[in-house]
Amino acid sequence: MEALIAMMLIAVAALGVAELSGVASRAGDAARVQTSATLMASQKMEQLLSLTWRFDGLGLGQPEGDLTTDVSRDPATTGGTGLGPSPLGALDANTPGHVDFLDRAGRWVGTGAAVPAEAVYVRRWSVAPLASDPADALVLRVLVRSIARTSRHGAGPADAVLTTVRTRKAP
Amino acid sequence: MKRESGFTLVESLVSLVLMVTVSGAVFALVTPAATSSQTHPEALDMQQRARVAGDLLSRDLRMAGAGVSAGPRTGPLNRYFAPLVPRRMGLQRPDGPTVVRADALTISYAPGTHHETTARDPLGPAPSQLRVNQLPNCPVGRPICGYAAGATIAVFDEAGTFDVFTVTAVLGDVASLRAHRTDASHAYPAGAFVTPAETHTYWFDAAARQLRHYDGYLTDVPVVDNVVGVRFEYFGDPNPPVRPRPALGTANCLYDAAGVRLPLPVLPAAGGSTAPLPLSLFSDGPWCGAGDNRFDADLLRVRTVRVTVRVQAAHAGLRGIGADFAVPGTSRSARRALPDYAVTFEVTPRNLNLGR
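^ inputs. structure came back:
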């Protein structure tokens, strides 16, 4: 009996240690996902910041903005909406022109409503006029999710969300 | 017959079977845990190294081109010279002026200070002493507009020529200089701009598998180990640059002496705002600047930089073979192999995009 109890205790202790190892491993995976997701979100934000959004260079005070670049493709192409307002719900669903998909290393693998097989992350963004200055200021938001984590745990919080405000400037 | 106490054969067998079963279960758990305990710290270390590389490069890239905020001329540095040059520049082992590398980048910017001024006397060539004008923005009561020994300064003109120096000593109103280049530096007229400056060269040492940082003068240190790939890509203005614009009578890489713009192509834009800038564009001229600090005029177009950094597991025993491993290791078990970790990010330097 004593031997059996001792073995049970050993087994329980071993299970506990193994579980700890699993917890650490999952935490490490989550950290990697967050690191990657943050860099991917930052990358899209920087692309949006590189698009023209200013007053004209002639000093006439006329607003100019990029309304044609499609940054959902890599490299970017024309035929998109640039810094034009995005449809409502662009952050909640895969909206063409406001979503792209990336592999584990952050390489672009596609865009559109359907998720490519090799996609590991989905990245969505929205462009909206700032309520207090709708003509000259934009609210830019970028969201990145791990597709695997989303399918395991449901939508839940995104792995990375970045928000900034961009205003027109004179050249 | 006396009966002796003890275990029967059946009891012993049951006990033995139980012990073997439990021990087996424990070993089944311990083995993956042991593997995990070896791979997990390494995986975290790889992430940390990738984060460090990303943070360092992002910080300096965001500052690229930050320019003069006081004095006779203000504005970003790309109005005068290229703040991003895809090669190693400086005093020690600089790349040649026509070399273009995908794995090296020199970033220049002026930290925000109140030491911006102009040269009082002509400089150089190979100047060793500097006198400056004490402009209203200079610190009161401090000679040489507040420069002290050890300061790094940039001297540049409106024609697109620049040099970086370290102030080696200050005596009265004279600063002794040492140029950050191996050839004789350019001559500058009185009135040339003088500003505090920082230069940061990030370069990939393939032999040592390190991302290194060079300050352009005497310090070259590794910043991230076990790096197996670094790549810089450039995107920029489809339209040709319009600055630096020299005074009439002086030609540079963008204008002739009569002030007429030299022809540079309008590039096909990927979208409405920026165009991909292949490295070949940076080695075909026209050339701005002088000597070791020459740079292709197309570098003045750069508005966004994309960086890819790939790190690997430090221990060969945690690397396998195949496309996931730039340097093959000795592990033949997928559970004991950590694929290389690559991060890609972009930076749109704020000072190179003013008014965009």
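Residues 96 and 112 of chain A are 5 Å apart (CA to CA). Chain A touches chain B through 49 residues (CB under 8 Å).
thumbs up if we can close this ticket
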